[in-house]
Amino acid sequence: MAEQVSGQTNMEKLVSLCQRRGFIFPSSEIYGGLSSCWDYGPLGVELKQNVKQAWWRAIVRERDDMVGLDASILMHPKVWEASGHLEGFSDPLVECKSCHLRWRTDELKDNSCPSCGGEVTEPHLFNLMFKTFMGPIEEEANVVYLRPETAQGIFVNFQNVLNTTRKRLPFGIAQIGKAFRNEITTGNFIFRSREFEQMEIEYFVKPGTAEEWFDYWLEERCNWYVNLGIKKENLRLRPHTEEELAHYARKCSDIDFLFPMGWSELEGIANRGDFDLVQHAKYSGKSLSYLDKETNEHIVPYIIEPSAGVDRSVLAFLCDAYAEEPDKEEIRVLLHLHPDLAPIKVAVLPLSKRENLVKFAKEIYADLRPCWMAQYDDTQGIGRRYRRQDEIGTPFCVTIDFQSLEDNQVTIRERDSMNQIRLPIAELKNTLAAKLAGEELFVLPPGGQIWKEGGKD
Ligand code: GAP
């Protein structure tokens, strides 16, 4: 269980910002919400898509040894027998005899109810898979399950992918998709919910090389988070003890993040050995082996599985991006989101609502929109508009003033430093592309100049 930590990003403030600015809402809110389900609003859906795209780009697009997959959520019921989920994917559940709240046994304090201290019942096993029925008749023979992990869709397609891509070991199959778990206790915002998304890699290796690939993926996955803005000091590796290893795992380590409620799992990396391919071969009667061309032998590859949560990643990125800074008499709230993750990349802001300026600014906005998620805003004072963009993490604002009508120049304001440069409109797109890719603001394009320095709007 997470230990309480002070001094971290305050969860209440983050939840409030997410609701106020349209990142994340409780599901079915007008009906009082549905416990532990969340809806991503206009900015949240952009942020979440950007997280998934960044993962897909790093894992699939930029690598030769990886291919993607999108398997269906409903799978043959035998899959869950073979995987061990029907028998083993359960939490021991107790109920408090006084307040009737239900708990996992690992959440109990001194074997009593964490809420009221009351006595609890004997534990019984509770399977976390959601059940439903295939077709119109609701009987046992038609039971299917909502997948509790995306991984199984990859294992059952191992031979299909092998046959169609001619990949040689080591290679991986990556998938992003929804997973469902009827969690006994939920909470901490989007950290633990009953419907969530996973980004999973199943990396197939020769058995003797599993250890080194396990270490490789630990490092690779930590670097991915850090490169996108997670603070190194807020990540740690937590190897699993023998007792807590999942039924399929030979070795496992969590990548923990220092969430507002304490250190908790962000991603799990497991050495699943040959468990899954052996099980599915046994239950399906199909061969799931690999012909090693060097030795001419059929082998069952071992699998290294880096399994990340999309929602937990979104929460971690928001936590480490959130900042409050003194701003005259007020506080400037900002999200230091990495440009790749920021929901809006650029805001176009005319200094006033005068017709000729608005027309000019809207033309620039129309020109930028095909390239990036952009926003146009001409309401209220410019200071207010900058603050609104800071709070949603927009890395750059383009400001159009009356002089722009004369000299065809605009300013670019950087979110984090509040510095500004002025440049010819003809240079705007190239310059924004360079800045979004990480170039220093004061590296100037032809005809550009430093406009404001020193962090005051
Ligand atoms: N295939 C392996 C697997 O599913 P897991 O540790 O149970 O392993 C992997 O889940 C990741 O999925 C976790 O590290 C977490 O990021 C995410 N995850 C798991 N349960 C979740 C839940 N109830 N709500 C949100 N994310 C969850």
Distance from first to last alpha carbon: 44 Å
Give the cofactors and ligands.
glycyl-adenosine-5'-phosphate
Strand order of the largest sheet: 3-9-10-16-13-12-11
Q: What class, by secondary structure content? A: alpha+beta
Mean pLDDT over the full residue set: 95
Summary, kept brief:
Helices cover 29% and strands 28% of the residues. It is α+β, with helices and mostly antiparallel strands and 457 residues long. The strands form 7 sheets. Strands 3-9-10-16-13-12-11 form a 7-stranded mixed beta sheet. The protein has a 6-stranded mixed beta sheet with strand order 20-19-21-22-23-24, with helices on both faces. A 3-stranded antiparallel beta sheet has the order 5-4-6.
Walk me through what this model shows.
The protein is an alpha+beta fold and 457 residues long. 29% of the residues lie in helices and 28% in strands. Strands 3-9-10-16-13-12-11 form a seven-stranded mixed sheet. A six-stranded mixed sheet has the order 20-19-21-22-23-24, sandwiched between helices. Strands 5-4-6 form a three-stranded antiparallel sheet. Helix 2 packs across helix 9 and helix 3 packs across helix 8. The two termini are 44 Å apart. The N terminus is likely disordered.
